[in-house]
């Protein structure tokens, strides 16, 4: 899939008058990293494996001392404490994720430690799930199942379980990077009317033409979208932006889909918007906290579909993510540009 680093990862021994080479040590913070990635890294490096499930910060800190690289396979905060414990020889880190909101990026930059991540490779899998959430929220799959479970079929009513049409709709994107564009490609088969998007900078004109897309301000996105996909990174600017101010500006028939990060949406306000029919329905694969408690009030609503953050959860995608992360770490160790750098 990708080329290995041109140099076998080795580090000179610090022992005086020694010509021996010491193998680089890589901390792997998750015990279930796909074997393909482990095999790749173990060819020239010693792997320090964490065994806890779920991953445990205490174990990570215990095993981090003296490592040269980190394969960060969880969403546990990667911060100053971890870097301090590891020591000054640490020279390469990659996450096995697209989002890096749990990483203290400024601290890594200050220490001149390269950081890799795995954004592009998961776009198709996440887009597939987003389409499923859109369809199931628009056509009331969850509510329909509860009708079956409770034997409350009312199909003698002509208007029973009416949902929202996708054809001829306006589809909005809050964030329109690789995942948003992968969703837009899939939407072409649904005969939508147009695409609107809100981003900091406009996309390429050729892409705008390809997707029949127009950049608009956030308030216009809210007001005009029949379906609205959240596909932006979590930043101080995006955190909580979908809230009690935003929801009343949306159409009452609107369907909201979030496959980005949970905290971009104020969940208390989303609950109110769904409960009071300010918007029609929602489909979310991300939330906060994760795991979502079984007694969370969102789970009492009929007009929301919730999946447990499984956007990239296919064998092919997770294996590709792990392999790219492994290449990132190895390249960083020998001073080569990472395959997928975060900065």
Summarize the structure.
The chain is an alpha/beta fold and 343 residues long. It has eleven helices and 13 strands.
Any overview of this molecule?
- With 343 residues, the protein is α/β, with parallel strands linked by helices.
- The protein has two domains: 24-98 and 315-334, Rossmann fold (3-Layer(aba) Sandwich), CATH 3.40.50.720; 122-150 and 161-306, Rossmann fold.
- The chain is 31% helix and 16% strand.
- The chain contains eleven helices and 13 strands.
- The protein has helices at residues 35-42, 57-64, 80-86, 105-110, 123-138, 141-149, 178-187, 205-211, 218-224, 267-275, 315-333; strands spanning 10-12, 21-28, 45-49, 69-72, 92-95, 115-116, 170-174, 194-198, 213-215, 227-230, 255-258, 281-284, 304-306.
- Strands 9-8-7-10-11-12-13 form a seven-stranded parallel beta sheet, sandwiched between helices. Strands 1, 2, 3, 4, 5 and 6 form a six-stranded mixed beta sheet that branches.
- α2 runs parallel beside α3 (80-86).
- It is elongated, with a radius of gyration of 23 Å.
- Residues 12-19 have low confidence and may be disordered.
CATH architecture of the largest domain: 3-Layer(aba) Sandwich
Shape: elongated
Number of domains: 2
Share in β-strands: 15-25%
| Derived structural class | alpha/beta
CATH class of the largest domain: Alpha Beta
Order of helices and strands: EEHEHEHEHEHHEHEHEHEEHEEH
State mean pLDDT (0 to 100 scale). 94
Strand order of the largest sheet: 9-8-7-10-11-12-13
Largest sheet: 7 strands, parallel
Total E-strand runs: 13
Q: Terminal Cα separation, in Å?
A: 22 Å
- Regions with pLDDT < 50 over 5+ consecutive residues? 12-19
Biased composition (Polar residues): 1-11
Region (Disordered): 1-22
Protein name: Glyoxylate reductase/hydroxypyruvate reductase
GO molecular function: glyoxylate reductase (NADPH) activity; hydroxypyruvate reductase (NADH) activity; NAD binding
